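User: Predict structure, ligand glutamine.
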Amino acid sequence: MPSPRGRTDRTMTTIGILALQGAFLEHEAMMRRLGAQTVQVRKPQQLAGLDGLILPGGESTTMGLVAERWGLVEPLRAWVRSGRPVWGTCAGLILLAERATGQKAGGQPLIGGLDVTVSRNYFGRQNESFETSLVAPVPGDPPVRAVFIRAPAIVESGEQVTVLATVAGHGEEVAVAVSQGALLATAFHPELTADLRWHAFFLERVRAGA
Ligand code: GLN
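Assistant: Predicted complex:
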């Protein structure tokens, strides 16, 4: 959020959170606990001056349609292409993906940029939501608990993509956290736990100018 004077403080790291739908308040609270300044992004001009951007979980079809209606799809694509840090969680991962399977008829607008194929409701049918233990974002740290809700999985990834975490899927090991340059994506919801480590990891990348 802008400071009370209506300006953002340039000495602080400013994280924008796409606030069209879904779990944006939870991301905002965690980023603030880590000392970052946050901006809820609903208009293209709110992208200016951000150091990093979070695309939250929720419903990617709805988020894509609202983004289209509000003229945000092209500005978001340009932002991602500019090489600045972006983190997509769950539906946000779907929006960041170059390719998605299991989309609604007629498709859905994706922002793209991340060279992966996501299966939209990979864990959705049998297993609406579950929690599991996952490797921490920083190798060697104790594992994190990860919350999956109608979660996608990354079923294919390009050469530039680094797989950070996998879980056992339907007879295969599937990627659930990846990075590619300044892009970070997780199929689960670190903002729905009390563990700040994924948020700290993203903020560290932003501060390092990832
Ligand atoms: N599967 C959902 C979608 O397609 C994502 C679910 C979530 O973000 N928790 O948008």
